């Protein structure tokens, strides 16, 4: 069984990185040859490149691992707004694969290729994935406010000028939740008279309040995503479990909040964010205590919806996997026939490199490897 899992991870790694390299080349060609003459066309074509790359791992989660997400969503809002307008995503940053569940839901809502995020600047130098994000115009921050406020204003104007709806993810907590960081967060809240949160870190409001003036008039809504997994679940929500074909069951409550409800003024908007996270904390606490996001939270209940995996993600994966495997087999066979041992060893080395990159990425996604930014900042 371990050998089969190893082969499965190798196939996923080869498919993911082959697709990523080709997408990198496609993005570069669009930037050099199309964007100078027609920015709208360049971005419209880039959408499909981004979608093709992101849905590789969506396919792994849903078709290979068999993960099934239960989503709670207002059907009227879904039909009228979801995937049809620009939006700022606010999501709890608790699990190793919270980003993957965000890809899963944006795929179902028809907006996966238009998903972007605020991210650490260093990530844009990560081979393949970081390059995709860089050329997809993610907003990369130094975590130096004087520099970042200029980047935020400039990049937000660019991002929300896309012809298709863009959903921009902001992890307002700044770093992934850990018990050590939560302890510091509680102390920080008590010292400053802020709401004490049980399941979240105190949100960092600077990025949000700095973004607001630019977003007004071009980004009509906040999409609040509340993600939870049952604590007694047999399979832990990790990237490794997905690559091993082990299903997980995410529960997600997502709601639309008009941006107009956020008050003007930096202090007023910051206070609104703190109170909003206190409400989010009640929603998550209600889930862990009762199994329902709504029973103890005071939030209006909406129906559950289970989205079926999209056939397009499976066909996309199979297409890239077939392309990658055929290219590798062709080069291996021709190298053997021609006695080109250097070429043969090179291909094997590339395969080993792809596998190592995937293992490195999985290890880096572990909660134990999370940034110390939150702990350091509160100290």
TrEMBL record:
Q: What class of enzyme is it?
A: transferase
KW tRNA-binding (keyword) present: no
Question: Pfam families, alphabetically?
Answer: Acyltransf_C, Acyltransferase
User: What GO terms fall under cellular component here?
Assistant: endomembrane system
Q: Where is the Phospholipid/glycerol acyltransferase domain?
A: 87-209
Protein EC: 2.3.-.-
> Where would you find the membrane-spanning parts of this chain?
12-33, 45-65, 122-141, 314-333, 339-358
Task: State the Gene Ontology terms under molecular function.
Answer: 1-acylglycerol-3-phosphate O-acyltransferase activity
Keyword set, alphabetical order: Acyltransferase, Membrane, Transferase, Transmembrane, Transmembrane helix
- Entry's family note: Belongs to the 1-acyl-sn-glycerol-3-phosphate acyltransferase family.
What is the recorded name of this protein?
Uncharacterized protein, isoform A
The organism encoding this protein is Drosophila erecta
Q: Its encoding gene is what?
A: Dere\GG13456
